[in-house]
Amino acid sequence: MPIARVFPRRTSATPDDEYAFVGEPPFVEFLPSDITEVHVSVTFTWDIPFARHLVQTWRHIAPVKIGGPALGSPALDFEPGMYLKQGYLFTSRGCPNNCWFCDVPRREGQLRELDVKEGWNVLDSNLLACSEEHICNVFNMLCHRKEKVLLTGGLEAERLREWHVELFEKAKVQEAFFAYDLPDDLPALKTAAKILTKSAWYRERKVRCYVLCGYKGDTPEAAERRCKDVLELGYYPFAMFYRDAQGKSEKSHEWAAMQTKWTRPAAINSVKRALKQSSDPLSYIPLLP
Fold it and tell me: Model's pTM, two decimal places?
């Protein structure tokens, strides 16, 4: 029963098979003739109005359903290649934390381990919160991949242990992203940095860190200080601007400039060079390619 999956916008994770489409339907002659159902999948809340429009434009092709994270659809078992490109995978759903800025526990519930499918870019919301058996199963699978292994879901620094990093080395993980969501996370990031930097796995450019910014009470100056803090610890920062449940944000020109500076390798390297010239202790940090 071939299902056409329709997405409001293309991202790096959008499937690229013949039954995956972005936006309006193409001419009928360019559509597979055996489509029996259409699923409009919405990841971002700000795409909901356009997604509802797509429901109307695709309904003449086949019966249409609409869902996805933006609409609070329940996260069930993960089917590789269905709503994410082949290689992207979830091995667990939910999260045991209840952070005010995150809707994962509200949408997906508490942590639930899934059967480990094949893939190489792990997107779990909190992989390190899973059981040791599950984590080992995930990395045993990753060890056999020929592709570049990535952990991009955002690892919780407080849960990192030395045996995790040994698994990173065993699976030849190329990049692992940690998360710096609130100022209170800094002590855990410091502890994790000590584990990471003394490991056999640690190399230049492998350890990245999402830095949440722009939430109520935050300032560009404070957010930039947090980015410099993780840079000093040996992580490469990636600034992520906060949006509320409706996808709204108050991004001024100053905030936009700050986020640009801390998401582009060239800009981060520029900061690195300036710190090096000023004999700042951050000078040992390697440049991104």
Answer: 0.87
